[in-house]
Design goal:
This protein has about 350 residues and is an all-alpha fold. Helix content is about 60%, strand content about 0%.
Length: about 350
């Protein structure tokens, strides 16, 4: 669902930057009060996992489209909404700057569409009520995790997809009429969200079995973990390496939900959908040109590969290096911001 710069007018892009920046600021302020030191390595490893996971596009059968992990629900279940949102912001910024995935002008919108709903709406309206509410009290913990994951991914991805439609409409892109665009975007992202929900639930059930206290709103007394914290994080780090460096080579070549909605996939015998010209669509602006020129200079692995080469090695390098960069940047930001510090001896409870 990474939006390109051509989908946004500068005023809309600036508005979305402001909304995301305010959310980042509020998240930072909240996290400065956090004293859970074990969250720092967890945040680094899980952020890398989401980066690697986003590289694997899975085919949506019978459509000619594909989807990939968004990751907001996964991160918020492990880190909480504030840390999850900051992690997603780092992931999306690195994707835009170093891999030309999503426009630089559109970064604020992408943070809002892909991170805000999954992290904040997903946590406060779905994850926490399901995990702690009386309505679901009779369900087993694993069932709650699966239910919260699937519902959370489906609903928050629907909200993100709808926001894309609103933002393009506000940008005056008449080639994407509101009603028709909604009619294409929402169903395909319903299917994508369902698959993401199943993937998310599988990861979170593993974490529950291995180290239950890593999950938000799940106490250590809910179950005795089978692994130490260090072992759990090492296992997740190995998964990152396998996914980013190996499984990413088998990602679907079909366009993702947003691209499919705009351009279709007629070359493979499927619908043209909105039928936009991939070489000439949307709006052009000086701001977009500046953002594009900056991105050309910073993206040393454009489209997750070596520039001018179709070598699969570029994909593996992108997955491994990108995951490492995300983990390192998240760790540096956490340490520099003073997040997750230990409580001082003698401090008041």
């Amino acid at each position: 669902m990474h939006m390109a710069d051509a989908l946004l007018a500068p005023a809309v892009a600036a508005t979305m930057y402001a909304a995301s920046a305010v959310t980042v600021g509020a998240s930072v302020r909240t996290l400065k009060k956090d004293e859970a030191t074990e969250k720092l390595p967890t945040m680094a490893v899980t952020s890398a996992l989401v980066f690697a996971g986003q590289m694997i596009n899975y085919t949506i059968p019978g459509t000619g489209s594909s989807g990939h992990l968004c990751g907001g629900m996964l991160l918020t279940a492990l880190l909480g909404p504030q840390a999850g949102f900051l992690s997603m912001t780092v992931i999306l910024a690195i994707q835009a700057l170093f891999f030309a995935d999503g426009g630089l002008l559109a970064l604020g919108a992408n943070c809002w569409n892909m991170a805000f709903y999954g992290c904040f709406v997903g946590y406060y309206l779905l994850w926490r009520p399901i995990m702690t509410g009386k309505l679901f009290g009779r369900l087993g913990m694993r069932t709650k995790i699966i239910l919260a994951s699937v519902l959370g991914c489906v609903i928050t991805l629907q909200l993100g997809a709808f926001s894309v439609v609103l933002e393009t409409s506000a940008s005056g892109i008449t080639e994407l009429p509101f009603g028709a665009f909604v009619g294409v975007m929402q169903p395909i992202h319903l299917a994508i969200g369902l698959v993401e929900g199943l993937i998310t639930s599988a990861v979170l059930v593993f974490v529950y079995e291995a180290r239950p206290e890593l999950l938000m709103d799940v106490s250590a007394q809910a179950g005795r973990g089978r692994c130490s914290l260090k072992t759990t994080l090492v296992i997740l780090a190995v998964v990152v390496a396998i996914v980013g460096g190996g499984l990413s080579l088998f990602a679907s070549s079909n366009p993702d939900g947003l691209e499919w909605s705009m351009f279709g996939n007629s070359e493979a015998g499927y619908s043209e959908n909105m039928g936009l010209d991939e070489e000439d669509y949307g709006v052009s602006s000086g701001a977009a040109e500046v953002a594009g020129s900056i991105q050309e200079k910073t993206a040393f692995l454009p489209d997750y590969g070596f520039a001018g080469s179709d070598s699969v090695v570029g994909t593996s390098v992108s997955g491994l290096l990108g995951s490492a960069i995300v983990a390192a940047v998240v760790a540096v930001i956490c340490m520099g911001g003073g997040f997750f510090r230990r409580k001082k001896a003698g401090a008041k409870a």
